[in-house]
Design goal:
- The complex is a heterodimer of chains A (about 170) and B (about 325).
- Chain A is an all-alpha fold and about 170 residues long.
- Chain A contains 7 helices and no strands.
- Chain A is globular and about 45 Å long.
- The model of chain A has no long low-confidence stretch (mean pLDDT about 85).
- In chain B, the strands form 3 sheets. A 6-stranded antiparallel β-barrel of chain B has the order 1-2-5-4-3-12. Chain B has a 6-stranded antiparallel barrel with strand order 6-7-8-11-10-9. Chain B has a two-stranded antiparallel ribbon with strand order 13-14.
- The radius of gyration of chain B is 45 Å and the shape is rod-shaped.
- Classes of the chains: A mainly alpha (about 170), B alpha+beta (about 325).
- At the A-B interface, helix 1, helix 4 and helix 5 of A face helix 1 and helix 2 of B.
């Protein structure tokens, strides 16, 4: 369990470093993928609520500390909400279609980005640019759908190699 | 069920913790006079992750540049084509400037020669070279309309080029000094030895002094001599003796002469309009010994040739 958590932490740190160094260079029209949120979604979809929530909290905290300039905790809230939501719909995703994962990833990225934007705007007492927020959410969703196969394969292999001690259940 | 409840508890606990963090951060921001705990946490986290970020960033910079370069590839190609065209244009201009400088130098030399000889001249440009391999001629862009007549000397900045061979109203053909049919009376500029200089095509000129004992040596300069009304003004440089041959007999001696003029690079020349000497009138009262020169050949424009006594000669068939 400790080993698994440690490896997931390494994955998150690696994703964070890539998020802040590599992805800005590959941004299209200024929009780039949210790797941490994508990893949270993958873990939540594969392992269920507890694992997804823990990874989401860690990912949100890292984002708040090192990426976002919003109040500390906002990304934690959005990531945790996304992880909980994905875990909640997980039992209903019985289709074996390869498009389910990318669709869930896109939806999670869309909701997470919108929620983060709205929360940040509310706490900053400013009115968010709705159009810009919508474009960012859509772009992040597209990125999530495109990168899903890669992230899902990488994180999925890790989760399979180091399964949780107690089999997870649906939330 | 246990997992579900556990997840709910965890979810609630995380949300509450996050709200606490937000609250702390908001309070820290409101108390902007001092650095709060959240800021200290951010600084510490940044300090830990920064080396990793810098390492990856240094690796990624090249990739980012490559991606940007790929995007600009078409534009770079177009600019490359434009720049190459500019380089060609500038190179052409540079060549043109060099050509103008060379032409300017040639013309200055021609002017210097004209002033030195104190003769009337007309400047001409070489417009054609003889296509034949056994005929050494050039065509110049002045003719009878500019006062050019058959037999007039043609000089370049370095010295004698040849003589006008055929004349049309606006062009003339010049028989070059090196043509095998060309002959001119020459003399050593220092020694004064007079002789006959003949062209030999691509080989050096051949000089036969009238006095085989003349003291001409290698390096002696030869100039034209107005000997016996030779047709050329005196003193036009021709060349230097490059070899002194052994006499075929006690009465003859030949010397090889290297001409000053580079006949492969004749661009501008001067046609000497001045007559070297006035025509010698016939002896007074003498009808049986008229002074005469050989009749000239007709011009290429079909004009008739004349003899020196003014008699008109029909064109040769």
């Amino acid at each position: 369990m400790m080993r698994r958590s440690g490896l997931l932490l390494v994955v998150l740190v690696t994703a964070l470093v890539l998020q802040t160094s590599l992805l800005p260079a590959l941004a299209i029209a200024g929009y780039r993928p949210d790797l941490l949120l994508l990893i949270t979604t993958v873990v939540a979809l594969r392992d269920g609520g507890p694992s997804g929530l823990r990874v989401g909290a860690a990912a949100g905290l890292m984002t708040d500390l090192l990426v976002s300039d919003a109040y500390l905790g906002i990304s934690v809230i959005t990531s945790v909400v996304v992880a909980y939501g994905v875990a909640a719909v997980r039992p209903y995703l019985t289709s074996g279609s390869p498009f389910v994962g990318p669709a869930v990833g896109a939806a999670a990225a869309l909701v997470g980005t919108l929620a983060h934007g709205v929360l940040a705007s509310l706490l900053a007492e400013t009115i968010a640019d709705v159009a810009q927020l919508a474009r960012a959410a859509l772009a992040t969703a597209v990125w999530a759908a495109l990168l899903w196969p890669v992230i899902d394969a990488a994180v999925g292999r890790l989760l399979t190699a180091f399964p949780v001690d107690v089999p997870s259940e649906a939330v | 069920m246990f997992q579900r409840n556990r997840a709910r508890v965890l979810f609630v606990g995380l949300i509450v913790s996050a709200v606490v963090l937000v609250t702390l951060d908001v309070r820290d921001v409101d108390r902007s006079d001092a650095e709060g705990a959240v800021d200290a946490l951010r600084v510490a986290a940044t300090r830990v992750v920064r080396p990793l970020q810098e390492g990856v960033t240094s690796l990624v910079d090249g990739t980012g540049d490559l991606a940007a370069s790929l995007g600009e590839l078409r534009d770079l190609r177009r600019r490359n084509v434009e720049l190459l065209a500019t380089v060609d244009e500038l190179s052409e201009r540079r060549r043109s400037v060099a050509d103008l400088e060379r032409e300017n130098e040639e013309l200055r030399t021609l002017l210097g020669l004209r002033d030195r000889l104190e003769v009337d001249t007309v400047a001409a440009r070489t417009v054609g070279l003889s296509p034949s391999t056994f005929e050494w001629m050039i065509t110049i862009d002045v003719g009878s309309e500019q006062g050019v007549e058959r037999g007039m000397p043609v000089v370049a900045g370095n010295g004698l080029v040849g003589r006008v061979y055929q004349v049309t109203p606006r062009a003339s053909r010049v028989l070059l000094l090196i043509d095998p049919t060309f002959s001119v009376v020459a003399r050593g500029s220092r020694e004064g030895v007079v002789g006959l200089l003949d062209g030999r095509g691509g080989d050096p000129l051949l000089f036969r002094p009238l006095d085989p004992r003349g003291e001409l040596v290698v390096g002696s300069e030869l100039v034209t001599a107005s000997y016996d009304g030779g047709g050329f003004p005196s003193g036009i440089p021709i060349g230097v003796v490059s070899a002194v041959g052994a006499g075929e007999s006690r009465l003859t001696r030949v010397l090889e002469v290297r001409p000053y003029v580079d006949f492969a690079r004749l661009n501008h020349v001067l046609v000497v309009l001045s007559r070297p000497v006035d025509p010698i009138p016939p002896f007074e009262g003498s009808t049986d010994l008229p002074f005469s020169r050989p009749p000239t050949a007709p011009g290429v424009d079909g004009s008739t040739g004349t003899t020196d006594d003014g008699a008109t000669q029909e064109p040769a068939p």
